[in-house]
Amino acid sequence: MHRHLKIAAAAALSQILLADGAVAETRTLYVGMNGGNFERTYTQVFADFEKQNDVKVFVVPGTSSDILAKALAAKDKPQMHLMFLDDGVMVRAIGMGLCDKLKAGPELDQLQSGSRLKDDRAAGIDIGMTGLGYNKKLFDEKGWAPPTSWMDLADPKFRDAVVFQSASASTFGLHAFLMFNRIQGGSESDVEPGFSKFRDTIGKNVLEFISSSAKLSEMVQTGEAALFPLTPTAVTTMQEKGIPVAYAQPKEGSVVLMVAECVIANNSEPELAQKLAAYLLSAQAQSKALAVGNVVPSNTTVTATTPEAEKKLADFHTFMQNAVTLDWDIINARRPEWNSRWNKMIER
Question: Is-contact 132 247, C-beta < 8 A?
């Protein structure tokens, strides 16, 4: 009897040791990205990759600027393996030597034109655009027609009802400012028209400058925010929460806003990180991201799996017809100066 107990105990101990060994062998990858909807979406997208590769993927949440700062601080011994950054911030990251070249594969050739950055040091996983979001409930109550132009932000009827993301802290705010600057005759190389005219036009209507869009939901629901720069994806996410917003494509064009991924140079799992990067560019992963999180695919072979996703893709292709792509090399070279001017002249 004792002999049987000893055998059983030994077998149980063997199973525990095997289980511990299996756990020890499970590798981990860390991906820096925006929190909120992006984190919720990609936690689900990562699941298939985790099962297939016996790996656990953890999200390091933060804004693009936060993630870039973390990657730069740990450049010699990276703590993350991949990072998702807004396109303009990603161009800076590449210039800092933080990104390995993506491994060649069929997924890269399937990407939307313009999605591959700087000798394939990064590639878009989500393509969107910044246009105008508006408070549909308030517009309906006031009998206002939907906005059609960036210059609607300067319409006197929206006095103290425009919420504008800070151009020194937010890509949405910077996009809107640069489009206003273009309408006034400027360009990325010449922002004098924008700075000289903003305060007496759009600036007069601004109720509050905000550092990010997190506060918008509350301000729409209280009726404070009527009009604001925003993306179709962000509008859809708010709509799904019952918030009465809608998106309008400005006649002058929206601004292309791409979230790109890069494999962080000198990371501890280079092959596995490249494998995850390739998976995230695949039609399989991007189809799931579209279905569960309204993330617009960069892979042109993605097909919608629901009527809602199909409509989103159709809308995206329509909006892209007059979308504007900015020159991020010029912007990044001059943005510190612009940020200082913005903070002193516009938000003071």
Answer: yes
pTM over 0.85: no
Distance of CA 229 to the CA centre of its chain: 15
The DSSP-derived string for 67-126 is: HHHHHHHTTTS-S-SEEEEEHHHHHHHHHTT-EEPPPP-HHHHTBPTT-EETTTTEEEEE
For domain 128-256+324-346, say whether CATH 3.40.50.720 is its number.
Answer: no
Topology of domain 10-127+259-320, per CATH?
Answer: D-Maltodextrin-Binding Protein; domain 2 (3.40.190)
* 52-62 per-position pLDDT tens digit: 999 999 999 98
- Give me the amino acid identity at 229: P
* Cα–Cα distance, 255 to 266 (Å, whole number): 33
129: helix, strand or coil: strand
Beta strands 206-210; 122-135: pairing state: unpaired
- Residue 3: strand, helix, or coil: helix
Task: Count CB atoms within 10 A of the CB of residue 311.
Answer: 12
pLDDT in tens, 117-134: 999 999 999 998 999 999
* CA–centroid distance for 3 within its chain: 62
**CA 10 – CA 126 distance, rounded (Å):** 52
